[in-house]
Amino acid sequence: MFLGNVLRIITHVLFWIGVYFFFTYYLGYGTRNTNYINSFAFYLMPVTVALGYFFFYFLIPKYLLVKKHFLFGLYSVYTFIVSFFFVALSIFYGMILSHELVVEDTNPLTKTIPYIIFGVYFVVLIVIVLGLLIHNYNAALKSEDLKNKFLATQLQLKEQELKYLKMQIHPHFLFNTLNTLYGFALKKSDKTPEVILKLSGLLDYILYQVNKPNVLLEDEIQHIKNYISLEKIRFQDNLMIDFNYDNNRKDILIPPMLLLPFVENAFKHGIQINGILSIQLNIVLDTENLIFECQNSMKSNQVKNGGIGLTNIKERLQMLFNNNYKLLISEEQNQFKVYLKIPVKNE
């Protein structure tokens, strides 16, 4: 801020020094009486500076920039009328007080009084033009700054919303898994330690990976496999699951915890038919996209509730990919099917 103010002062000083030299050149072109010209130009400077700043700091921002054109024109006329008197007074005093500097047989001024007045108002016109350019430039900077702040605020809100959605996944996932663990604990099952170990691995993934914008696809697949292992322990022989995935490309990145809610819902809302819960999972990669398919057994007349998982994932998909994705959810032949296609990134 301080440096900016210093640069602004230096710029103004240099500008008015330039105006002073313009007066000396304009009024003294063709004469050798430089002392008289320098003194006379000095007397024109106060009224020129005052008039220029009056337009620059008052009339332009207060009336012209806010589109009060009539008032700007009216006050400009008043200003020129009043200033004409002070310009003429400056010329009169300049001629009298610089009279002793006149060199014999030398014309002190090469311009008549109308041309001198024209020179003063020409400088004021330049100040007005520069003022408009500077004010417009500052307005553009402020507009761009406000736009950037607005975008930053929007981004911050999106990040907070996305963080909130991720936080919703954790209780949903933990609720399902802890129920499984609770069941084994009641039965005093020997598999309880194994379930706890797998759960700790999943929690490690959630706590340290889910806050990242992207994770490796192979990590996400391993996370799903761990979750399936927990469910296999719970369902025992009542589960038939087929998980096929293409993981030949090790550098593929996707948002964390993006696919698991579909798998969770397949287990949570899937219905056993003939005592068997059937789930089919497929992950396929093409050149630029990942295709995820999930289907689970259900009854045709089953009343479904998507729960937190599906609602959450739809909101996350919209925030992450902004319609640049495809999500299809359908029911057919005792099967609940999910088809998801998203763009992927390389590490």
Describe the structure.
Helix 2 (34-64) runs antiparallel to helix 3. The protein folds into two domains: 2-149, no CATH class; 190-346, Heat Shock Protein 90, CATH 3.30.565. The protein has a five-stranded mixed β-sheet, covered by helices on one side. A hairpin with a 2-residue loop joins strand 6 (326-332) and strand 7. By secondary structure, it is of the alpha+beta class. The protein is built from eight helices and eight strands. The mean pLDDT is 79. It is 65% helix and 14% strand. The radius of gyration is 40 Å and the shape is rod-shaped.
- Name the helicity range: 55-70%
Q: What's the tally of helices?
A: 8
Number of DSSP strands?
Answer: 8
Question: Considering the protein shown, what is the CATH homologous superfamily of the largest domain?
Answer: Histidine kinase-like ATPase, C-terminal domain
Strand content: 5-15%
Architecture of the largest domain in CATH? Answer: 2-Layer Sandwich
End-to-end separation in angstroms reads: 41 Å
Number of domains: 2
> What class, by secondary structure content?
alpha+beta
Any idea of the CATH topology of the largest domain? Heat Shock Protein 90
What is the N-to-C succession of helices and strands? HHHHHEHEEHEEHEEE
